[in-house]
């Protein structure tokens, strides 16, 4: 990851069990005689260079370019024109034509490997040993195990293939040759993993060392390079395995049903497929490690976060909802397979881009969707140490990432419980062990325990650190040790103090009458026929009180009016039985309707026309005495009339 010595790279890869084989020793190698490219191949390479040069900048090939070039192989546009004696319509069997094409492309490929190993690598290493260009270790990291690949193809694969084609008339088969040598192709995994790092090293040292850049440029000017850069030649081994797979597929497809080579060829194709899969896995792993390292750099490379075995599932901006002032602030989340990082963008981005404010373990994490009309697409992330109320840009942004991960990992699925829609209150057994959701200040106008109204001077808002309720100072004048906060004493309400400590407080609350209005807004809203914010206008229809209006399921003939959605006591209630519901046509910005009975008239204003129609329908059913939600109305008009 750090791009240090080859031994360090091997050690990092070994953590994930991905490195296949050892780095080869290069000392003492003597250059071999340089083979020449056929004229037809030189023209082909030149043609490829003109097409690819437009995509190739001075900084070399990126991983995206690598992947796009690899997948272009699947289009079969890389297949060479058939040489003399193999023109369409010749009498040679189709399978032999493909076998000869394999031999021809293998010879050209060995020439390309010779160029990489015996020219580029040998000359660069010779200069590196003088100490005037780059360190020897850098050259070794650039070319990885190209020497082993070249040796295998030039001394084993190509001679075996050539020998078989010379004896084709007596033994028309190549499946057994490929089957015997295919396991050695797994050595490509190391080369493919190293490719992107090699390109980066070429770019970086070309800028640092002019002699290094000049030597590469000098070699690239030679006729044998066919006007292609070192990076393009290095891409050839990455493309070779997929080409074997396509050629062999075509070969098997053209074999006669009774061919003696069918069994070996199909087995060889299966082995090549596994090698290609191995190569693709190496590319995916290298890309994952590269992306992971970029994320760690953005986070400042903190020791307790950097771990190559982590998997980044999702990242993105998020809005944090404040429980104090009902505002939002921009934050940033990184969701890994084992942790969630809650970050803040740094104002001065020197080094790290983000500052990690909170790390939450995925184990024990819960995610719950919130129904909030003021802040749509909100959800609650509850960990053992902290609970966050967040707003996403779209509903499934966070949960979808978790769901995708759950499908691939039973461990992750067991740790994250998914979307929950139950009450925000903690379960009794979790009280003090898990950070609670704090009720937002603007959602209550009175203490959620004693029901006394808040004011800015004598009765201010406080939060119970155990249950998250908004309570007054008198109701939260207690301390209890909370397990999620390291057993440190925290401010809690009376009910939580009694539960957590087992102590009793001498306060006579026995026999206190619970009035008809003492129904919690949150409690009955979760079991309501309809609930939302409305505005109750004054007699002049110009002003009034905005509040939270609820028709409970267990009391469907009464409309309860609260100052805020989380209040534990209603301000007032209106018995709906016998009222008429009337529409009040107004402008598009005012959606008005009325409840009228004798001389008593209540005028309401909804936020939208759709919400207004829902309230009129619900109130009309209650006014008609209909208590069963499934019961059909006998008349559409009912008690709803147009206001005169």
TrEMBL record:
CDD domains membership: FYVE_FGD1_2_4, PH2_FGD1-4, RhoGEF
Family matches, as Pfam families: FYVE, PH, RhoGEF, SOS1_NGEF_PH
Top-rank taxon, per record: Eukaryota
Domain FYVE-type: 441-501
Ranges of compositional bias, category Acidic residues: 628-644
Start and end residues of each stretch annotated as Disordered: 28-59, 622-644
Annotated ranges, domain PH: 311-624
GO MF annotations, alphabetized: guanyl-nucleotide exchange factor activity; zinc ion binding
Ranges of biased composition (kind: Polar residues): 30-44
SMART domains (UniProt xref): FYVE, PH, RhoGEF
Biased composition regions of type Basic and acidic residues, renumbered to the chain: 45-57
Cellular compartments annotated: Cell projection; Cytoplasm, Cytoskeleton
Alphabetic keyword roster: Cell projection, Cytoplasm, Cytoskeleton, Guanine-nucleotide releasing factor, Metal-binding, Phosphoprotein, Repeat, Zinc, Zinc-finger
Record's signal peptide: none
Gene Ontology BP term (one): cytoskeleton organization
UniProt name for this protein: FYVE, RhoGEF and PH domain containing 2
Organism: Catharus ustulatus
Lineage: Eukaryota, Metazoa, Chordata, Craniata, Vertebrata
């Amino acid at each position: 990851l750090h791009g240090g010595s080859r031994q360090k790279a091997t050690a990092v890869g070994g953590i994930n069990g991905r490195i296949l084989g050892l780095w080869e020793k290069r000392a003492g190698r003597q250059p071999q005689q340089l083979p020449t490219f056929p004229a037809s191949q030189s023209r082909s390479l030149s043609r490829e260079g003109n097409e690819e040069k437009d995509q190739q900048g001075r900084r070399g090939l990126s991983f995206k370019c690598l992947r796009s070039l690899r997948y272009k192989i699947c289009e079969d546009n890389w297949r060479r024109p058939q040489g003399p004696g193999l023109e369409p319509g010749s009498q040679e069997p189709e399978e032999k034509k493909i076998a000869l094409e394999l031999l021809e492309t293998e010879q050209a490929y060995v020439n390309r490997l010779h160029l990489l190993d015996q020219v580029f690598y040998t000359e660069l290493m010779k200069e590196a040993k003088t100490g005037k260009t780059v360190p020897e270790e850098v050259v070794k990291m650039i070319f990885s195990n190209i020497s082993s690949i070249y040796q295998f193809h030039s001394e084993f694969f190509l001679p075996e293939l050539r020998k078989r084609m010379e004896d084709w008339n007596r033994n028309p088969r190549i499946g057994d040759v490929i089957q015997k040598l295919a396991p050695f192709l797994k050595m490509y995994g190391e080369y493919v993993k190293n490719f992107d790092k090699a390109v980066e090293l070429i770019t970086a040292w070309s800028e640092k060392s002019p002699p290094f850049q000049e030597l590469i440029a000098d070699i690239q000017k030679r006729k044998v390079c066919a006007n292609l850069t070192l990076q393009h030649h290095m891409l050839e081994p990455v493309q070779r395995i997929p080409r074997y797979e396509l050629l062999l597929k075509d070969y098997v497809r053209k074999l006669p049903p009774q061919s003696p080579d069918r069994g070996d060829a199909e087995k060889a194709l299966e082995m090549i497929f596994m090698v290609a899969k191995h190569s693709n896995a190496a590319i995916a792993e290298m890309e994952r490690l590269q992306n992971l390292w970029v994320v760690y750099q953005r986070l400042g490379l903190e020791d307790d976060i950097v771990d190559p075995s982590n998997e980044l599932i999702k990242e993105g901006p998020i809005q944090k909802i404040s429980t104090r002032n009902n505002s939002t602030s921009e934050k940033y989340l990184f969701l890994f397979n084992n942790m969630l990082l809650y970050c803040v963008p740094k104002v001065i981005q020197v080094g790290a881009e983000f500052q990690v404010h909170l790390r939450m373990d995925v184990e024990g994490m819960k995610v719950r969707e919130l129904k909030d009309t003021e802040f749509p697409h909100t959800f609650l992330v509850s960990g053992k140490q902290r609970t966050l109320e967040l707003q996403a840009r779209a509903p499934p942004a966070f949960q979808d990432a978790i769901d995708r991960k759950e499908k691939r990992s039973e461990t992750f699925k067991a740790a994250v419980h998914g979307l929950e829609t139950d009450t925000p209150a903690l379960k009794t057994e979790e009280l003090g062990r898990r950070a609670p959701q704090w009720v937002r200040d603007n959602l209550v106008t009175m203490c959620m325990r004693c029901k006394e109204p808040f004011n800015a001077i004598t009765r201010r808002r406080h939060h119970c650190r155990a249950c998250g309720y908004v309570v007054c100072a008198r109701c939260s004048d207690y301390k209890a040790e909370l397990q999620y906060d390291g057993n440190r004493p925290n401010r809690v309400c009376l009910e939580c103090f009694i539960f957590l400590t087992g102590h009793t407080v001498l306060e006579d609350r026995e026999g206190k009458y619970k009035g008809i209005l003492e129904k919690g807004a949150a409690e009955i809203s979760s079991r309501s026929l309809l609930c939302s914010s409305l505005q109750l206008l004054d007699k002049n229809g110009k002003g009034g009180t905005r509040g939270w209006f609820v028709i409970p399921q267990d009391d469907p003939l009464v409309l309860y009016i609260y100052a805020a959605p989380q209040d534990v006591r209603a301000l007032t209630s209106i018995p709906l039985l016998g009222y008429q519901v009337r529409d009040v046509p107004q402008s598009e910005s005012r959606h008005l309707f009325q409840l009228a009975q004798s001389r008593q008239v209540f005028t309401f204003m909804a936020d939208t026309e759709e919400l207004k129609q829902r309230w009129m329908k619900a109130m009309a059913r209650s006014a008609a005495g209909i208590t069963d939600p499934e019961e059909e109305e006998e008349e559409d008009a009912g008690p709803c009339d147009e206001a005169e």
